[in-house]
Each structure stands twice: as C-alpha cells, then as structure tokens.
Backbone:
C-alpha cells in the first residue's frame, strides 16, 4: 500500500492511496462517517424561552451546533452507553449555559461552556431571534455519540473517494484542441499546440472531452486499486484524527475476530 498526502487544512485532508481494494477503502470511509465519536448537544434544560420558536425546534438547532473538544478531554469522556448514570453526569457529559436578553440574535458563541476544553467551533451561527425584553435561559448538555445514531454526531461533512483518473491521447489526435474547451474542470491545457493533461487529479471522469473529440483520440479511464480520498469535517475534529480513530476502530474489530479464532 502506498499513501501520499495532497492537501491538509484544519477541516480538510486529501490523500492518494494505492494498492488497496474498494471494500477496504469503503470500510475506512464508512467508519469515518458513522463510528468515529464526537461531541454534540443531546439534552436541553429550558428555563426560559420568550422567543417565537418552540423549545423543541431550538433544541434541535442547538444539537446541530458543531462543538470543538480538546482531543485529550474528549478521550477522557465516557460514551453514554458505557456510563452507569441514568441520563448524564460529569463523567459522560459537558454542560453549556446560555443566557441572553433581547432585542437581538442569539448566536452559537453565546453558549458558555463549563470547561475551556469544549467550545462551539463557529461563534457566529444564528440560533434564534429575541424581540424587545424577550429572555432566553437554558442549559445544554453535550455528550459523545456516533453518526450512526444521529447526523449531529457525524464528524465528517464530506468523506469520499474516487478512482484515480487516467487520461491518454492516441496518435489519431489532429490537435483541434476541442477537448480542452469541453472540460468543465480545466484538467486539460495546451503545450506546443497539443492537448496535455495539466491537472489530472481534478478530473471527474465526466468524459466531456471524449465526446468532444471527433477522432476519438482521447481516452479517459481509471487506475485499478488507486484512489483519491477526501475527508472534510465541520471543524469539531481534525480530519487526521478522524482517520486515525477510524483505523483504531477497524483494528479493534479485526482483533475481536483474531481473539475469536484463537479461542476456537
Ligand atoms: Zn454518565
């Protein structure tokens, strides 16, 4: 297996992996999306809500606010199903409070966390509008969860792979350059009057270039066992940590199978 990093920011990571199968790469993708835990608001104790929005709707909006947690702190929190408490306690949850008086808009940044290790990723998400003298007072309780249970616990906003494209020109090319114009993603360019590939990894294999070529001199395909993998998160977890955690989860599953086989 060969792996090469292409891009990395706080919320996005792109890498090229080769020498793997679709089932393997798809297992990693599904675990990244559905089984890597993150924090999200699960309970809301509403003390006062004068806003013209039902408590349930506001609670739902709060649930979707991405929360960033210090990785070590998140690791120390128990998953709710592993905790002995009835609903939530200090071992499996983090409390955030919100108090605001109108007029004005309540933003995600108005949530005050009990610990500096947890805070909303983006402080400027509008939650609800308060009229003159309207008051809002609530406690929001965040817990760890997984995307399989609810999309609010999904750390990735996009997690996908595509086959690594392959573009070839044949000798029949009469250098009409129609293919360059036809490509919607600027994959092709011109060099000494000939069409050449200038941005291969941007190719989506739409084959617009193939259709534009009267001579059928261009062929678009893909490389077997080679993929471009992209992970984008909502900012709550670093994409590299999502991938690492997904690999840990896959390894744990494999180890359970090994233990079962050795035991039998
Ligand atoms: Zn608990």
Residues:
């Amino acid at each position: 297996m060969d792996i090469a990093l292409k891009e990395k920011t706080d919320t996005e990571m792109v890498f090229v992996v080769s020498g793997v199968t679709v089932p393997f790469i798809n297992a990693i993708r599904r675990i990244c999306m559905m089984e890597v835990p993150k924090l999200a608001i699960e309970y809301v104790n509403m003390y006062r809500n004068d806003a013209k929005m039902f408590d349930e709707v506001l609670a739902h909006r709060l649930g979707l606010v991405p929360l960033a947690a210090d990785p070590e702190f998140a690791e120390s929190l128990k998953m709710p199903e592993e905790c002995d408490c009835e609903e939530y306690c200090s071992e499996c949850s983090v409390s955030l409070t919100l108090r605001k008086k109108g007029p004005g808009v309540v933003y995600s940044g108005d949530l005050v966390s009990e610990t500096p290790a947890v805070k909303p990723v983006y402080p400027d998400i509008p939650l609800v509008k308060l009229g003159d003298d309207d008051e809002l007072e609530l406690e929001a309780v965040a817990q760890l969860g997984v995307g399989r249970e609810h999309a609010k616990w999904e750390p990735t906003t996009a997690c996908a792979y595509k086959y690594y494209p392959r573009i070839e020109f044949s000798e029949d090319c009469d250098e009409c350059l129609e293919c360059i114009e036809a490509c919607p993603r600027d994959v092709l360019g011109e060099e000494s009057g000939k069409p050449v590939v200038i941005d291969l990894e941007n190719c989506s294999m739409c084959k617009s270039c193939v259709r534009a070529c009267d001579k059928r001199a261009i062929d678009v395909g893909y490389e077997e066992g080679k993929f471009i993998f992209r992970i984008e998160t909502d900012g709550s977890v670093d994409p590299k940590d999502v991938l690492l955690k997904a690999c840990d989860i896959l390894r744990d599953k494999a180890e359970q199978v090994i233990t079962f086989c050795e035991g039998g």
About this structure: Residues 65 and 120 are 7 Å apart (CA to CA). The chain has a mean pLDDT of 94. The pocket of zinc ion is lined by residues 83, 85, 88-89, 91-92 (CB under 6 Å).
